[in-house]
Amino acid sequence: MGARILLVDDEPDLVQALSVRLSAAGYVCDAAGNGREALERIAQHRPDLIILDLLMPEVSGYEVCRRLKADPQLAEIPLIVLTAVPEKAVQQNAVWLGAQSILHKPFDSDILLQTVREVLHGPGEGVSAYG
Question: Most buried one in 48, 91, 110, 127, CB count within 10 A?
């Protein structure tokens, strides 16, 4: 079974597209539509990676990052931020966010898949490029 990835975004179509792409590459995907749901899912089944939007209703991605970093058992979960927040604003907070990578919407799904592989497996390793 592939690595478990939690997709957290309030755009259902984007989550569905990501899930299809990542599942085809051998990953097991779970989804949450906001930060509150994400925290519940993380408590139920610790993911191997989280792909997280920053601007969401109820509990923002920023708050999810804060809570993950505050919990020693969760702080080591790799995190990829996928956001529409302007690049300069995110760069200023990159260290605070604790993300291994930050991708900006709109994004190329091939680049996202390569980023997932590198975060989970290191450069040049992991699941094949075409599933």
Answer: 127
